[in-house]
Amino acid sequence: MPELPEVEALAAFLRERAVGRTVTAVGVGDIAALKTFRPPPDALVGGTVVDASRHGKWLDLLVATPTGEPVHLVWHLSRAGWVRWSDSLATTPVRPGRSPLALRVRLDDGSGFDLTEQGTRKRLAVHVVEDPHDVPQIASLGVEPLSPEFTRERFGELVAARNQQVKGLLRSQDTIAGIGNAYSDEILHAARTSPFTLTGKLTDEQVDVVYAAIRDVLAQAVAEASGKPAAELKDAKRRGMRVHGRTGAPCPGWDGTPCGDTVHEVSFADSSLQYCPTCQTGGKPLADRRLSKLLR
């Protein structure tokens, strides 16, 4: 699933290519992906793209319609969705069916992009709204972790608000916006912290370390993703991971010095997390939660 760094890069990619262009056509390939019906997608046609931005993991294309009223095309790519840009977009009409194509946006110079989703579990969500905060999931987003508002004091308040596993805190979109499964693994590895440490047990020093890791890991990932075409972002994300998705590989060490251990995994029903016992859990492997209780 694209997370804050990739979505930020996609927003920049769309700003560079789409701002100032006129929308000439919008085709819906998967009606189930469209979560709103007023305004209709056709409300974008004839409008000028003014901006592309991000709210957490949501992308937002702002279009000034011919009447002057702003309309936002906002979407969440979920686990298997993606933005596929073309400088010369196919001219064939979009027809609903079993194709991965969910939505096509054509611009006046023949360029444009497709929103696609692979697999059978369709979770891509597309909204056409007058205000992005009309989307409940956007309205409920927590603080942006790279914003000035995300101070050490603010993070301490979030940690103290309730006792929960620290990985769950990082992934909670109504607490901190934009961090998902992959970057929470990377942040906790950098912070030498077990993913299942309860926030109520974190010392002030540990909170300092996790806070710094959030800022450092995300800032580095944003910098590495910046300027890359949409087609390269997935591979770039995978290459940048130290532990996530690297089960069985040598751990590179939280500070870049190999620790001699290998990356371990804890599996769940539809996901998994990766960590290093030496770097994060005092050398003690965590039990697979499908089979037994967690070893702390």
* Strand arrangement across the biggest beta sheet: 1-6-7-5
Average pLDDT level: 94
The major β-sheet equals: 4 strands, antiparallel
Number of helices: 8
Task: Give the CATH topology of the largest domain.
Answer: N-terminal domain of MutM-like DNA repair proteins
**SSE pattern, N- to C-terminal:** HEEEEEEEEHHHHHHEEH
Oligomer: single chain
Kindly estimate the percentage of residues that lie in beta strands according to DSSP: 15-25%
CATH architecture title of the largest domain: Alpha-Beta Barrel
Q: Strand tally, please?
A: 10
CATH superfamily of the largest domain: MutM-like, N-terminal
Radius of gyration: 21 Å
Shape: elongated
For this structure, what is the CATH class of the largest domain?
Alpha Beta
Poorly predicted residue ranges: 292-296
Helix content: 25-40%
Structure described in brief:
With 296 residues, the chain is of the alpha+beta class. It has eight helices and ten strands. It folds into two domains: 4-139, MutM-like, N-terminal (N-terminal domain of MutM-like DNA repair proteins), CATH 3.20.190; 152-280, Orthogonal Bundle (Helicase, Ruva Protein, domain 3).
List the helices and strands and how they pair.
Layout: H1 4-18, E1 23-28, E2 48-55, E3 58-64, E4 70-76, E5 81-86, E6 101-107, E7 112-117, E8 125-129, H2 136-139, H3 152-161, H4 166-171, H5 181-190, H6 204-225, H7 233-240, E9 264-267, E10 272-275, H8 277-280
Antiparallel strand pairs: 1-6, 2-3, 3-4, 4-8, 5-7, 6-7, 9-10
Catalytic activity: Hydrolysis of DNA containing ring-opened 7-methylguanine residues, releasing 2,6-diamino-4-hydroxy-5-(N-methyl)formamidopyrimidine
GO molecular function: 8-oxo-7,8-dihydroguanine DNA N-glycosylase activity; damaged DNA binding; DNA-(apurinic or apyrimidinic site) endonuclease activity; lyase activity; zinc ion binding
Keywords: DNA damage, DNA repair, DNA-binding, Glycosidase, Hydrolase, Lyase, Metal-binding, Multifunctional enzyme, Zinc, Zinc-finger
